[in-house]
Amino acid sequence: MSQPTAQLLLTTQSSTSTSGKPMFFGPETAVWKKLTADVSAETKSDDKQKIVAGAKQAKEELKNVLLSSLQMQHVVVLAGSGTSLGPITKGPSMWTLWDYCVNVNAGEAGTTARKFSQAAEKVIAEIGYNIAVEKENIEALLSHCEAYLQVKTSADVTNFITESKKVILEKCSEFIDPADANQLSAHRTFLHRLSRRRVRDSRLKLFTTNYDLCFETAAGKQGLVVLDGFSFTQPRQFDPRFFLYDIVRRPTTGDEIGTPLEGVFHLYKLHGSVNWSRKEENDIEVELNPSPDSACLIYPAKGKYQQSYVQPHLELVSQYFSALREPNTCLIVSGFGFNDDHLSEPILAAVRTNPHLRLIIVNPESDDFTARSEEKNKYWDALFSLAKQGEDVWLINANFGDFAEMIPDLKSLTPAQRLTRDIKLVAGSI
Known about the structure:
The N and C termini lie close together (11 Å). A hairpin with a 7-residue loop joins β2 and β3 (33-34). The chain is an alpha/beta fold. It contains 15 helices and 15 strands.
């Protein structure tokens, strides 16, 4: 029996799409296929029927692709900042962090002219930050500040970095509202669908660059168990050995053989977390509201690559590299814009060198990103080129919430659908 092809699913989230319509592109399609019927009052009856039938067929085709993806032995997720953005989740964007770090009238209506705080204005002038070139980019600004401190001592720049880190820590912590049942609906749906895989398959591995607690909070509301590399005793301390542990259900019949507990997944926070604190003895502990200096975070800056080679981030990145090399793996990358080279490059390398990988990119602007002639992201360009060359690469126009709804609910399949799925698995066709 032939082994099923591993599947790599990438998802990023943005505000709008050039087309604004859900559709997908794959090596077997050669053209973008629309997932909704785009008809108007002027559309002829025969044409309308063809358009509706085409959209229905495209939906079924995409469903089969996603369904086969979830049957892989390994399912891995890389979640970026886009999974926390949007009017429902309300997580801070990079521009929001700039606003609160730099402007004295931050948070006011978007049309209000912003005014620099005295501290920010002084630092921007001192380090020579050119907004016309670098734009209002908090990552670029902090990178310039850190580079400046490498060659010159400045109390003003040092204080600005400290205050900015405090703002980032607060904004990434305070937006989750426990009373808002709808805020994390996309996260809950996403985890619920993926947690319904067969227990005999390997545990879901969820890697994220986010500092916030969206996935932990959503998992708690769903009754899921998170293995995050921290001990089960207080104080909870980081030890990578806990990623090797699992939870099983012991039978009450006296049989000593247990079965894996449902709804358990591994969580790897590549850039740290708002509730991680680095102690004097260099231990990492879970702590509510750590100080900016003790918080174990890789703050937005170009130096993220170097910072990722410090524990515990080194261990987490190592686990990430290892997961990408596994055969028969489904990797879902959500909310990730391919702007972090130390995470993007291994994905591209895995697609090129791992013959068992299928790549599916999901983004509400994926058609726009792949069509740009200027300011192209090299990873988007390379991955789209692989799709056009006939490699097993797929692209989908959808945001994180829409994609969560697209994921098939494995336990809600009809008997006929399960039989068809099992026959295909035996035949090695998926």
